Amino acid sequence: MTRKPVLRSLQTIVPDTVLLQEQVRDLFAQQPGLGRLAQRIVTTSFNVSGIDRRHTVIDELSPESDVTDSIFLDAHSRKLHEPGTQARNDIYAREAGRLFVEAARRAIDVDPDLQPADVTHIITVSCTGFHAPGPDYEIVRALGLSPAVQRYHLGFMGCYASMPALRAASQFCAADEDAVVLVVSVELCTLHLRSSEDPDTIVATSLFADGAAAGIVTARELPSAVAGLQLDRFHTAIAPEGEKDMAWTIGDTGFEMVLSTAVPQIIGKTIIEALRPLYAHESELAEAYEAGQVGEKVKHWAIHPGGRSILDRVQERMNLSDAQLHPAREVLRENGNMSSATVLFVLKRILEDQASRDGDRVSAMAFGPGLTAESALLTIIFQPES
User: Fold this and answer.
1) Under 8 Å between Cβ of 233 and 213
2) How many CA atoms lie less than 13 Å away from 344 in the CB half-sphere?
3) Domain 228-381 CATH (choose: 3.40.50.720, 3.40.50.1980, 3.40.47.10, 3.40.50.1100)
4) Model pTM?
5) pLDDT mean by block of 10 residues, the chain; 386 residues
């Protein structure tokens, strides 16, 4: 019988610089030239975000910063600059490369059964910068992996991109039972924050943050009892009516995020149909889903916290408990929206929850441009399969 692949050795990293939400709110609300309406939108968006703090690679944004040669913020006037896309991307190439390597190193180091020489594939994920040779190459060189490792990069897909990365890893393992796939996501969203009177831009500014996550996917039979997530099934759905409500484009002063306030309503309207095929292959889950009771069969829910209102809408439509949304809300509160890395943070929190048990089912969902909804059904595995 073919073994299903398992995601194991999940590791997460956030940059050292902490941004308290109320401090960032006041910074953006006090920018010169911002009208009263925009000031009110800034205050409201930040206050209702569900976020306490975020992390950034931009040290100068910290109130305690002693940076004198500033790129993003004048230390005296507290006026935000508008650095060009090249300046932002230069920082991305330096800082993201470091985080990609460190996250990958940690995932391998904590695994009791796998070594760098075991890695056969690398999938890197990011939508907040570009450079070549890219992070996949940097990981191979820094960790001493075989130059023959197969390397793939999923770029500019947005917040849902770690889900197709896991799906591709699962497919590699299905094609080769000895495959060991290193999946690494790094997003430096704060590089693209900007002052604006546009409501959609303000909403994005109130949410996005920096973070990195990595894990190993393999179907190998390994001896150690480590916590992991068996990758059972994936599904992709599109809500085309939301195509213009969530988008990611490149401008002269950074990447420009469109995150419309209509997104939660669109997700609420379409999520029932979007998720039905995920559960259709298991009769017990399919029946529970049609009865609006799938939350009673699937204990854990790793929802990408694109924002508090998105989590509210998913909880309402799927009839989920506060406890089931707690991991996602806590990741949002402590880290903000780190784009594609965020759902991996939520999955790690679920694995570390003392209430999690071997055999528990997990539903994972992430939303991104399109409007695209990526979902997965997983099973918590604490013991090696016999």
Assistant:
1) no
2) 35
3) 3.40.47.10
4) 0.96
5) 90 97 95 93 96 96 80 88 96 98 98 97 97 97 97 96 98 97 98 92 94 98 94 95 87 89 90 93 96 96 95 96 97 98 98 94 95 96 67
